[in-house]
Amino acid sequence: MTTATRVLVLNSGSSSVKYQLVDMADGTRLASGLVERIGEEGGVADHAEALRQVARDLTGKGLGLDSPELAAVGHRVVHGGTRFTEPTLITDEVVAEIEELVPLAPLHNPANITGIKVARELRPDLPQVAVFDTAFHATLPEAAARYAIDAATADRYGIRRYGFHGTSHAYVSRATAALLGKEPADVNVIVLHLGNGASASAVQGGVCVDTSMGLTPLEGLVMGTRSGDIDPGVVFHLERVGGLSADEIDTLLNKRSGLLGLCGANDMREIGRRMGEGDADARLAFDVYVHRLRRYIGAFTAVLGRVDAIAFTAGVGENSASVRAAAVRDLEALGIELDPVHNAVRASGARLVSAASSRVAVAVVPTDEEWEIARDTYRLAGG
Ligand code: AMP
């Protein structure tokens, strides 16, 4: 009899489905792929069709969903609310509860739910696990999780800071401890997940104690197209003076702000190129981005008290030496010193980029959300 050691990880986004098939016996990636432009011109009609496309792709690679070696399916679910604080084996009841959380993540949870439903139709006998983006942040103390607004109103509408990118922050904080040759329990890390979406977290002895995203993934750092922190008064001003509707303001802050709003480009590579040509808008976008990042480094240093490492991850964090350099420039007083030569080296693995004399280790740690989801899934599925 073959032992089932494979886990299929499904990440159903608002307009795409990413998948990865991992063999947990040895960590090999057997297949990965992406179905894009769901519901758009030239793409598949909907998420159900996208999932069937994934199933056909896998069958075409001889790795079909009917394989006896498949142990479980792991689903990334964006919002777990206060209900889901750990990876959870999916039942009808769990699906219903994830549906109840749709108002907290109207763009994301519906896509995740469709992914779960179709995968369960295709393999009803297989354990399926929901891994929540919010779960790693469930340990936030109330002082960090609560907004200072009327308590009854907050309770009534579930308004508190949930945090996102949790699988990445969990994976990277652990991998950073490993890079330092220490146990996660012995290390305090500031994780800077800088992708198209971006968030920071403060992880104390393996436990997340603060994070930059809040009720939704809009709060915190400057992102590709999202504003990050703004005065909520901006929203009322846009409504009263600008005459914008709630939906228009939502679109403005989520899709037309951040780097894109400041300079017309949301890709840090293009911004770097344009800065090289003396483009003032690109320069401003970079400066605003870095200023916010430094603010969070300072804030989370105070939250943690003692910082052992700062870890840069995701597209920008892993690849942009200039963002890393600007983020920690002149912070020797905080014990942070970069090694400019190490920082400039392009490499793919986890590595240190701080000077030997730096009290705080500065690391580049490639994230691996799929692996983290596969690991959580396999553990729950009895692997
Ligand atoms: P992610 O969401 O983690 O896939 O990150 C995507 C973002 O990473 C892109 O929008 C780029 O801004 C950024 N990125 C990717 N490669 C590079 C690079 N070589 N240099 C600077 N930024 C990069």
TrEMBL record:
<dbReference type="GO" id="GO:0006085">
    <property type="term" value="P:acetyl-CoA biosynthetic process"/>
</dbReference>
<keyword id="KW-0418">Kinase</keyword>
<dbReference type="InterPro" id="IPR004372">
    <property type="entry name" value="Ac/propionate_kinase"/>
</dbReference>
<feature type="binding site">
    <location>
        <begin position="315"/>
        <end position="319"/>
    </location>
    <ligand>
        <name>ATP</name>
    </ligand>
</feature>
<feature type="binding site">
    <location>
        <position position="76"/>
    </location>
    <ligand>
        <name>substrate</name>
    </ligand>
</feature>
<comment type="pathway">
    <text>Metabolic intermediate biosynthesis; acetyl-CoA biosynthesis; acetyl-CoA from acetate: step 1/2.</text>
</comment>
<dbReference type="GO" id="GO:0000287">
    <property type="term" value="F:magnesium ion binding"/>
</dbReference>
<feature type="site" description="Transition state stabilizer">
    <location>
        <position position="165"/>
    </location>
</feature>
<feature type="binding site">
    <location>
        <begin position="193"/>
        <end position="197"/>
    </location>
    <ligand>
        <name>ATP</name>
    </ligand>
</feature>
<feature type="binding site">
    <location>
        <position position="369"/>
    </location>
    <ligand>
        <name>Mg(2+)</name>
    </ligand>
</feature>
<keyword id="KW-0547">Nucleotide-binding</keyword>
<comment type="subunit">
    <text>Homodimer.</text>
</comment>
<comment type="function">
    <text>Catalyzes the formation of acetyl phosphate from acetate and ATP. Can also catalyze the reverse reaction.</text>
</comment>
<dbReference type="GO" id="GO:0008776">
    <property type="term" value="F:acetate kinase activity"/>
</dbReference>
<feature type="binding site">
    <location>
        <position position="11"/>
    </location>
    <ligand>
        <name>Mg(2+)</name>
    </ligand>
</feature>
<feature type="active site" description="Proton donor/acceptor">
    <location>
        <position position="133"/>
    </location>
</feature>
<keyword id="KW-0460">Magnesium</keyword>
<dbReference type="InterPro" id="IPR043129">
    <property type="entry name" value="ATPase_NBD"/>
</dbReference>
<feature type="binding site">
    <location>
        <begin position="267"/>
        <end position="269"/>
    </location>
    <ligand>
        <name>ATP</name>
    </ligand>
</feature>
<dbReference type="GO" id="GO:0005524">
    <property type="term" value="F:ATP binding"/>
</dbReference>
<keyword id="KW-0963">Cytoplasm</keyword>
<dbReference type="Pfam" id="PF00871">
    <property type="entry name" value="Acetate_kinase"/>
</dbReference>
<feature type="site" description="Transition state stabilizer">
    <location>
        <position position="226"/>
    </location>
</feature>
<keyword id="KW-0067">ATP-binding</keyword>
<keyword id="KW-0479">Metal-binding</keyword>
<dbReference type="InterPro" id="IPR000890">
    <property type="entry name" value="Aliphatic_acid_kin_short-chain"/>
</dbReference>
<comment type="similarity">
    <text>Belongs to the acetokinase family.</text>
</comment>
<keyword id="KW-0808">Transferase</keyword>
<protein>
    <recommendedName>
        <fullName>Acetate kinase</fullName>
        <ecNumber>2.7.2.1</ecNumber>
    </recommendedName>
</protein>
<dbReference type="GO" id="GO:0005737">
    <property type="term" value="C:cytoplasm"/>
</dbReference>
<feature type="binding site">
    <location>
        <position position="18"/>
    </location>
    <ligand>
        <name>ATP</name>
    </ligand>
</feature>
<dbReference type="GO" id="GO:0006083">
    <property type="term" value="P:acetate metabolic process"/>
</dbReference>
<dbReference type="InterPro" id="IPR023865">
    <property type="entry name" value="Aliphatic_acid_kinase_CS"/>
</dbReference>
